[in-house]
Design a protein that fits this description.
Length: 122
């Protein structure tokens, strides 16, 4: 069996975090490493767990959250999925020499597809 996709979920509000957890919890190829309730804990928990993916809230402007820059510089192999369900918006961030973003279908299928593709651009 392949190595599971390791995920940390840090969405706000709580209801959104619970919905994301429910959508991915039963997937045999995805391992939830942590659920973060306080955004101030994100950096520390990512340091401790080294996830493949971090799922966070997307700010109102759809711009890259500031924490993405910090984390992707320290963990360039990690991918970040940012969700804004109230706007039906979802963005994917990854880094190589640059930080990239692309829209993701704001649905369970979009989230699972991005996680399973490990954020590879097609």
């Amino acid at each position: 069996m392949p190595t599971p996709i390791r995920v940390v979920v840090a969405n706000r509000p709580r209801l959104m975090r619970e919905l994301v957890l429910e959508a991915i919890a039963g997937q045999p190829d995805i391992e939830i490493l942590a659920e973060i309730q306080n955004e101030l804990d994100i950096s520390r928990i990512v340091d401790e767990t080294h996830p493949d993916f971090l799922i966070i809230a997307l700010d109102e402007s759809d711009e890259r959250p500031i924490i993405c820059d910090e984390l992707l510089h320290r963990f360039p192999d990690m991918k970040i999925l940012a969700l804004a369900p109230e706007r039906n918006s979802c963005m994917f961030f990854s880094a190589s020499f640059e930080i990239y973003s692309s829209p993701v279908e704001a649905s369970e299928a979009g989230i699972l597809g991005t996680l399973r593709s490990k954020g590879q651009y097609v």
